[in-house]
Amino acid sequence: MKAGVKAGGPAGSATSALTWRGRRLHRHGVPHRILSGGLHYFRVHPDLWRDRIRRLADLGLNTIDTYVAWNFHQPREDAAPRFDGWRDVERFIRLVGEEGLDVVVRPGPYICAEWSNGGLPSWLTARDVALRSSDPAFTAAVGRWFDELIPRLAALQAGAGGPVVAVQIENEFGSYGDDQAYLRWNREALTSRGIGELLFTADGPTELMLDGGTLPGTLAAVTLGSKPAAARRLQAARRPDEPFVVAEFWNGWFDHWGERHHVRGVDSAVRTLEGIIADGGSVSVYMAHGGTNFGLWAGANEHEGRLQPTVTSYDSDAPVAEDGSLTPKFHAMRAALGARGPVRVSERPPVLPPARVPLVRRAGLLPGLRAVSAPATVEPRPASFERLGLDAGMVLHTAHPRVPEGEHRLTLIDVRDRAMVYCDGTFLGVAAPGLPELSVRGTGAVVRLEILVESLGRVNYGPGLGRHKGLLGPVLIDRRIVQGWESTPIALQEWTPADLATATAAGEAAAEDLAAGDSTAGDSAAAGPAAGELAPAGGGFAEAIVRVGTPADTFLALPGSGRGLVWVNGFLLGRYWDIGPQVTLYCPAPLLREGDNVVTVLELERPGAVLELRDRPELGPPEEYVEEFD
């Protein structure tokens, strides 16, 4: 592309803000480097957007980049995409501009980002469609989404007086496929809807990935965690006229449940950063501020058939920590970036003092879930999440097989991802991939078989993208298939405060029924103790009342509890799990209010007796990690 020529815009559009010539990037004709940082509006409470933007400005950045998560805006196909409140990406972009920074937007439609399903809606991936391809069934759906999104972004471009100076085409496509027609379609989908600023692709610095993910005539950026000199040589050999742009520099990494907390040393990160920006190189620090996978939006990876669900925190060992604290990496990177002037923001936002609050048992697991769940679907086989239109949460499957006398093998052929199994209210155990078999004892009578299946996160990267959730195969007693199932969706991510109140009140209703002598009020083992009584084992709902003077950040821990979810004043904070590495859940100040705050806990395994408020995060034992390409 010659200097001053449009970067992929439609005929007659204004010249883009960013151009290049002689391997140098220019902004309105002046030599320029993109010094950017990743900050995702969907991972930060909107009341904190401006604060986090200012922290990245103080880091020495001149640009912020964000993905746009399609499924966050349109979780259901039968509802129009939302752009209000937390989903007001236009407001986020305008705030960045008000703070004097440029914006790079990465609209996907696939974003990876360790986000559920890589940002693709599960209603789309439920279909028999070739994802991320020129399959008309896929591009038609993306086109309808882009019809809603792209004009909003186009109105905020630099050419229209806004802060958007560049837009990415797809995302690291070369590590997924080689459908060049799809990439060309994606580029045309952007330009035909009004994008006239710089367009670019981004891929890992290998021949294979760059072959699959780049387009002639479009800037080819790279993504990396180390070895910038080798990436620079490769890029120069392939694109001798283009500037060196690193669209993602992985200065930290994310975590999976059951593994260690990934960190990256300050010296290692800074040396790589200096190698990138040397000789006019541009960079986006991924993540500059990671934020939090609130709710059930955390994604997952698959390795050799094993699911690796991502934790709730997306701290990513970033220079600006999950709670906004400025880390040693912040100050070292700020120096490397040549930032001048004072740091305007506080080193650390205010926090509540530590406290311990009792957890009060409210309802047993199954009675509480049944009280809120939607109507069941009745079919010969268990219905998958996709069949039920359920993106995340749980499904309760119920059947009534006859079990012959004696011990029998109960096999769940394909569980995605974890199933808790009950027979006549007695907990039989947990089934999961690699552990599909349990034992059931029969008397020759018909039993009530209940299987509570939980999704631990949709795969966000690789060939497992779009994989379905639920009981995907048959349930067998010995070799006989169990047929005739009621499948009840439990949409935990969509629960309202009223739904939570209904779930927790189920314990009081069960206690009243039992006191009246009604032995059918819930299954004996599943109903749990009466309200106010803590069970020594077994899942259920519990509450804690946290009294707050002036709201401030806090970090919630549940010592003695096993695995479950936490709501704060009706907002689903996220998942906890005693296998670690993450111990505390970050609760930002805007979720709290002066006076009493209700913390609701859905414990699936082993309820503890106390909720702790801590003044510092605990993300687990650290492990040094640097992602490298060979």
TrEMBL record:
Keyword Hydrolase: yes
PROSITE patterns the record matches: GLYCOSYL_HYDROL_F35
Enzyme class, spelled out: hydrolase
Reactions catalysed: Hydrolysis of terminal non-reducing beta-D-galactose residues in beta-D-galactosides
Active site residues per record: E172 (proton donor), E248 (nucleophile)
Keyword ATP-binding attached: no
GO MF annotations in UniProt: beta-galactosidase activity
Beta-galactosidase galactose-binding domain ranges (all copies): 550-597
Keywords from the UniProt entry: Glycosidase, Hydrolase
InterPro entries from the UniProt entry: B-gal_1-like (IPR026283), BetaGal1-like_ABD1 (IPR048912), BetaGal_gal-bd (IPR048913), Galactose-bd-like_sf (IPR008979), GH (IPR017853), Gly_Hdrlase_35_cat (IPR031330), Glyco_hydro_35_CS (IPR019801), Glycoside_Hdrlase_35 (IPR001944)
Annotated ranges, domain Beta-galactosidase 1-like first all-beta: 382-490
Top-rank taxon, per record: Bacteria
Glycoside hydrolase 35 catalytic domain mapped to chain residues: 26-336
GO biological process: carbohydrate metabolic process
EC numbers for this chain: 3.2.1.23
UniProt similarity note: Belongs to the glycosyl hydrolase 35 family.
The name this protein goes by in its record: Beta-galactosidase
Organism: Nonomuraea fuscirosea
Top-level taxonomy: Bacteria, Bacillati, Actinomycetota, Actinomycetes, Streptosporangiales
